[in-house]
Amino acid sequence: MPCRGPDQLRRYCRPWGASILMTAPGTGIGGGDCVKWSAPGRTKRYNSSVTTTTGIEELRVELRQALDRGTAWLGAVADAPTVTEEWRAEAERDARLMRQLRTRAASSLINVALLGAFSSGKSFLLSGLQGKLDLLQETGSDGLPAEKFVGLLPSSPVPTTACPATVSPVDDTAGGPDAGGSGFLRVQFADAAENQWEDVGNSPAPAVVAAYAMQDADTSNRLRPHWNREVAEIEILVSSFRVPAKLYDLPGFGSPNAIHDTIVKQAMGEADCFIYVSHASRTLSENELDLIRTLYAHYRIYRKPVLWVLTAIDLATQLDHRNVPAWQATIDRNNAYLREHFTVDGRPDLDFFGAGFVPVSPASEVRAATFEAQGQTALARRQAAESRMDALRETLEALIGRGSGRYHLGKVADEARALLGPRVSLLGERLRTERLPIDELQGRLDALAERRRRVDAVATRLREELEGRLKEHVRRAARPFNRLAAHLHATLDDEIRATDVRRPVRVHQIQLAKTQALHDWIEAAPDGPARIWERQLRQFKDVVTDRVRAELGADDPATALPGYTFDINDLTMPRPRRNRSTVQDVLQRTAAFLGISAPIVATGTWIGGAATAGLVFPPAAAVLGISALVYLGIQQRKSRRTSLEVTQQEWIDELDVEAQQVRESFELAIGLQGMDVLDNLSDNLVRYADELDDAMDRVRDRMARPETQDQQALVDRLRATVEEGESVVATLRGLRAPREE
């Protein structure tokens, strides 16, 4: 059968939001014996100028050009006429931030979270994906030749406790730390302020990385000031990489370390897709049910693609009685496990796991490079083909082309526009002031002062009024929950009575049925709570727009507030990533305003994790975690009693409690979405008030200066600067991220 190249591979990629199928030999995903191979040393590598598809590359070039123009513009305005030292310092700071955005635009186009059981090979696969595995030929304890693989992150055949780790591609032309070689390691400690990273250095020895990443490692291998500090997470920056992807190596859920658990949930919120990693030497078991079920619940809500990867197939090549390699038998059993345990209406949920696991071997790819260097081309080709790593990379590239690349570049454009917009607006106001005849300046000052007074008078009162309106819209969306308990009983009571709730596998089936019932009910069209909230949110946005128009006395909000500040799309776009303490504050504030019970807030880590990542909440996100919470309570009671006392009736009774918890969690999730709109409005009003203050200062300064012959030259210079700034902002607006409604 002919080899399937990239064009054929894309035929197997479902639309954005569904599982992705990879062409791989012997997996039922397309047959073929051939995998595209590039000779080691000639393999395509991504640095700042290389991307995945022509469309994304064109978009990235356009964005980088706009960012370069924006950086140059900020440098020019730092020396603009009449600027203060504070303005100059802020413009220079924004120019540095603009260069950081250029680095993002040149590197990561997709966020990938790797999940799997302990010692499943996640870290090894991650290093292999980015071409960061090295093979050393050593002598074993028996005196025979032995292989030793060294990657970016420590790998161990023995289960160990590890902290979350991220490998991030960076642009090696943008300044910053030296991320060449095996990368630049930095660490965030549990006792430090969030986002306060401490540098370790370039190309650290494996023992140094292990000392930070693994709990049982020798901490004396750390920098001395770090010996006795608890690590929250680590990050390795790499300037040479095979895929323009930010890769998260996540240790799993339910960590005894609360910070690690929060970081994992936050990373899941930021991920564009997931790779579930399983080792070729063992099959899926009941121990992984909770982890996969959590991933499944997340998938049902966000529809992010999941890739299923069986790694280390080079360690499981022995043939069975059918002449089938052991890794193929493992794939067959794993796929059967997924088909049995993850179903919709009694049928396997193929959207979740597609054709199932695909085999890869990062080690074989590294061996191919070694053979190629030794001139053994035939062996190199065979090892590279058996590794199947290029097929996995091409699948990630297909995802970039289908959505994530445009989204990531659009987010960079949004952030750049937020940096430039205020500066352009302020200079525009200065230009208008400088153009005014001297006898009109007092009238201008009076008009600005009146507008400033109105903003002060409006801000608090309008916020309180709109919070009340938001509460009404939330309550309307939540009214169907009065029927939820009855729906759950009608759907699940008979199944619970027919199930031995003492058996974990049977409990999993009930939990899956419960999650499906909740999700389908919440998302039901047209009368499900999610559909109702979509309509209510649109109405609430209209209310916000109308009230600002009325209070600020303008037919068009853009004439009362600068266009970059009052854009209804901007008010409803995801807010920037929040830190964890801010998330808890927002959760508490929203819960108090809606009258939601404290236990839901305390256990709302999934909602909090999504909020930290800056997500706009799909309404059905309220389902996440609630079933597990109630089940956990039953399991705790079970541990205190004999198993016979954990009755089916107890499970049935818990459905009433669960229905109320789901309602409150739903209200909290959509309340947070509405509060994001109001928080953006409040931020914009504060910024607008600051602009008015600055504009009044400029008018007073102009009034204090005598007219000079240089006035027209000043106006001409400001006009050219403002026009260039407006042009850059317009370009960035055209590149904005797709909106989530």
Summarize, please.
The protein is α/β, with parallel strands linked by helices and 741 residues long. The chain has helices at 6-11, 54-77, 85-105, 122-129, 206-213, 258-270, 289-302, 326-341, 350-353, 362-373, 377-387, 389-435, 441-478, 484-497, 504-523, 529-552, 557-560, 568-572, 580-594, 598-602, 605-612, 626-640, 648-704, 711-734, and strands at residues 110-116, 134-139, 145-150, 165-169, 184-189, 198-202, 231-238, 245-249, 273-279, 306-311, 343-344, 347-348, 358-359.
Biggest sheet record: 9 strands, mixed
Gyration radius, to the nearest Å? Answer: 29 Å
Find the CATH topology of the largest domain.
Rossmann fold
Specify the CATH architecture of the largest domain: 3-Layer(aba) Sandwich
Q: Helical content, roughly?
A: 55-70%
Fourth-tier CATH superfamily name of the largest domain: P-loop containing nucleotide triphosphate hydrolases
Shape: globular
Helical stretch count? 24
Classified by CATH, the class of the largest domain is Alpha Beta
Task: Count the domains.
Answer: 2
Q: Give the mean pLDDT.
A: 79
